[in-house]
Design goal:
CATH class of the largest domain: Mainly Beta
Number of strands: 10
CATH topology of the largest domain: Ctag/Cox11 (Pfam 04442)
Order of helices and strands: HEEEEEEEEEEH
Structural class: alpha+beta
Number of domains: 2
Strand content: 35-45%
CATH superfamily of the largest domain: Ctag/Cox11
Radius of gyration: 24 Å
Length: 194
Amino acid sequence: MDTQKASEDVLNKNRNTAVKVVCVVAAMLALSFASVPLYKIFCQITGFDGTTKRADFAPGTVLDRKITIRFDATTAKDLPWDFKPGQVSQELHLGETGLAYYTSENLSDQPIIGSATYNVQPAKVGEYFRKIACFCFTEQLLEPGQKVDMPMTFFIDPEMVHDKSLDDVTTVTISYTFYRNDKAEAEKLAALAE
């Protein structure tokens, strides 16, 4: 009897261990899928790694200090788009609202959905760079051969003047990279097929 009970105890311990291992693996898998969106949210909230923040409106204060904003654009290798800034740079006062355009053209013979990511350099300026409106907030659908101008409205928070670590900053670069959004394309095609 004691041998049977001991065998049952070992079997129960093994089952418990197996259940725990499966739960840990499932949790790790879920966390790995959630890590990219969670990191993106963290960067948007904190301005970490040159990620800009959103704003509903421009500040009421414009300071004398000027900053040159440079514009950069790239596309991923699998995205057959011509993507470029409409201007090389702009000079703005801290707190002044800027309007910049980027142009995208679909060079392929099929509709393509793209999504843009962005960052600001030097990265330490990211928490002060604010976008009011931007093409990067939504997926962009371009039909074959379609060319569009995409606006971005932004400002640099005048609070930057109080950050002594940024006294040396005279130029800021905002850089966009467009990626093909295969998931959104598949969903659109499935919706059209229905």
